[in-house]
Structures are given as structure tokens and as C-alpha cells.
Amino acid sequence: MSTRSSFSPVTQILESGPASASPEERVTEEHFNNLHASSVTYRDLLIFEERLKLNMIRLKKRQQKYEAFLGSLVVVIAYCAFATFYQPSEHHSIIMFSALRQPLVRATAAKRLSRAFSAYSPNHNAVAPTSPKLEYLLTETRGRVAVVTLHRPKALNALCNGLFVELNQVLREFDDNKDIGAIVITGSERAFAAGADIKEMKDRGFIENYAEDFLGHWTQITKIRKPTIAAVNGFALGGGCELAMMCDIIYAGDKAVFGQPEIKLGTIPGAGGTQRLVRAIGKSKAMEMCLTGSVNLTAEEAERAGLVSRVYPADQVVDEAIKTAEKIGNLSLPIVQMVKDAINQSFEVPLSGGLTFERRLFHSTFASKDQKEGMAAFAEKRKANFTHN
Ligand code: CO8
């Protein structure tokens, strides 16, 4: 993600110059508003966060300066009041000047004063509550495309429970969001995901796994009704390979590696490695990968075998996935969902049942406004304007 080359106007604003005090460089309400714009990238958010931190430091320094000034004023006023009633000696003057040199005294005096005033001033600094922060994911939207980045760099995006809980949550949110038409899931250049978190699960027992349906919530991804595209760079091992296979389309960076090494840990794939992989690449290759745990597929091999639909240079794969997601996202959403349903049905039922299911859905598309619009646009030689109805 960090290598994406196209930066939005927000990035350009935020990147212009050092974090000094000039008004154009400060984070303003306009920048916040821009952050909702479709052109915002993950990089924008990182820069934005950085700029916010710098602004906070600057504000803190300014606050300290004001406090010091106010504190000095309090000390001088107190000294003047004292001098009005008593004859100040040289000793008193020395005490006052040394008090002025102590930031703590000045700040305390200022705080007392400001606390006294604050009871009368409006609460203009109140900030609206923000949504809870994601610990393991980064998310962004580009037009009708949502991009979810697995972000647990120190553990090669190992899929710990917390990561999957967050993933399910954000995918559900994007699935419910009518402004989103397709979702891209990606990781880092080094790892899409190096599998389930081995350290987290190593001491678990059978009874608790069975009783709690351990990792059963992973399958929620397959319930997402909008198209999902996995943009895979680096390791996609074990649960990482299975996560990619739960997506509708897989694009791979040229250095991607797909594997099912579970057998080397004394266990077996548990989220589709022995099922989806067979359907994707056939029995012999799937057996070889799962039985040895060490025969992995390179990106090119994965493409040849049909696991991956396209391979791109590592730094382009996310952009290419987003482009495809944009294409899909601009088509009629209900019709897109019908295609997804029909293709997924082919994994579940015999051919005759699948064909009947497909024909019924085909018939039903004629009840949609988008079918009327799509066919009218073709007849009138213009671009269709789908309204997702
Ligand atoms: N779990 C936990 N931590 C991991 C994992 C993982 N799967 N993979 C990597 N890490 C951590 C390492 O422990 C290391 O952490 P630290 O620095 O604290 O020691 C850090 O990531 C970097 O890893 P390495 O130093 O090992 O990096 P290398 O470049 O030397 O090696 C590899 C990279 C080859 C990817 C290596 O890390 C590796 O072999 N990882 C394990 C791969 C694996 O076996 N995956 C399968 C896991 S089991 C699984 O996925 C079952 C899924 C079942 C789903 C069931 C759903 C119902």
C-alpha cells in the first residue's frame, strides 16, 4: 500500500512544507471534510495522523507559553498588591523575580486563574466522540470501493482472533454501506497473512475448541454479499491462503507465495485448505501442498493453476485490484450480487440444480430498473447509468 503512486490533493496539501505554523499547513476543518472524499488514500491518513500529532505538540507548546505569561502576570499583580499595602524590601523583590523564573510557579498560578475563569466560558473545545480505533486493520474508501489492509506488521499479519473480529466487523459495515460496491482486502508487501496466529492457539485443547467453535467466525467472510478481491503480496500461508480463497477474486503480486504448511505444525488446514484449494487447483496439486506443507505455489504457478486470476508487479497489485473493484462497483449492485450468488451456488449443488438457480435469477433480473436501463442504453448507444435498483 505504501508504494501506491497516486496521491490525492489532500496528500499534496498535507505534504507541502514542514509542520510549521503557516495557516495553509495546519490541519483545518476543511482537511477533515476532505478526508471523507473518495480520493483519500491510506497514505493520506498516515500523513494526516502525523500532522495531527505535530499540531498537538505545537498547541501544547503554545499552551505552555500562555500559561507562563499568565503566571508571570499573576505573580506581578500579587507583588503590586503587596507593595500597595506594605513597603517591599529588596528581599521581597528578589523572591518575586526568582518566582518569575520558575515555570512551575508561573504555570500553577496560571492554571488557578484559568480554572477560575473556565466556569464562565463556553465549552467550545468539546470534541465529538470518534468510532473505536481498529488495532489490526487500516481501512479506506475510493469512490465505491472499500480497501481493507491487514496491519499487524510485526507478526507478518498472523491472523489472531482480534484481527478476525475486526475484519468481520469492517466487512459487515462495508457490506451494509450502500455507497460501497466492492471490497479489496490486502496486506503488506511482505505478507498478505502468514496464517492463523500459532502462538495464540498453541496451548488450546480439543474440548474448548469444540465448545467454542474455535475460529468458526472466520467463515463470516463468505457471507459478505458484495464482491471481494484479495490483493496478495508476499506470504499467503495457511489461514492466509484460506482467507484469500474466501475472497471472490485473487490478484497476486509477482513475489507472492501460496502454501498450506499446517501439517508441519502437527495440524491440518481448517478454513478451506483441503476443500477450496482442491476446487481451485485440482486434487494432485492440493494434495502435494497440504501433505508436504512445504511445496508452495509462486504467483505464476498459482495463476497457471487457476488459483489466481492475474499477476502484477508487487507495487501495482493493489491499484489493479482497486481498478477492477471500481469497474464492478459501478455496475448494478443487485445484479452483481446475483452473479456472485449464482457462481457460489456452483460449489454447492449439482449442475442441473445450479443451472435452474441461474435461470431463475436471470429471469428475475427483468424485474429490475437496471436491466431496463442497461438494455436501453445499449439500444441507444450510450453509457448505462445504473441506479442499483
Ligand atoms: N503466527 C504467529 N506469529 C507468526 C506467524 C504465525 N502464523 N508467522 C510469522 N509470525 C511471526 C514470527 O513468530 C516472528 O515474530 P517474532 O519476531 O516475534 O519472533 C515474525 O512473525 C516474523 O516471522 P519470521 O521471523 O519467522 O520471518 P521469516 O521471514 O524468517 O519467515 C515465514 C517467514 C516463513 C512466513 C515464517 O514466519 C513462518 O513459517 N510462519 C508460519 C507460517 C505457518 O505455519 N502458517 C500456518 C499457521 S496455522 C494456520 O494458519 C491454520 C489455519 C486454521 C484456520 C481455521 C479456521 C477455522
Description:
With 389 residues, the protein is of the alpha/beta class. The chain folds into three domains: 9-117, no CATH class; 137-328, 2-enoyl-CoA Hydratase, Chain A, domain 1, CATH 3.90.226.10; 333-379, Lyase 2-enoyl-coa Hydratase, Chain  A, domain 2. The chain is 50% helix and 11% strand. The protein has helices spanning 9-15, 29-34, 42-85, 90-100, 103-118, 161-176, 198-201, 206-212, 239-246, 276-281, 283-292, 299-305, 317-329, 333-345, 351-365, 369-379, and strands at 137-142, 145-150, 182-186, 191-193, 228-232, 235-237, 249-253, 257-259, 297-298, 310-312. It has a six-stranded mixed sheet with strand order 1-2-3-5-7-10, with helices on both faces. The structure holds octanoyl-coenzyme A. Residues 155-156, 158, 194-199, 215, 218, 235, 237-239, 261-262, 265, 270-271 line the site of octanoyl-coenzyme A. The site of octanoyl-coenzyme A has 20 residues, from helix 7 and strand 6. Belongs to the enoyl-CoA hydratase/isomerase family. This is Probable enoyl-CoA hydratase, mitochondrial.
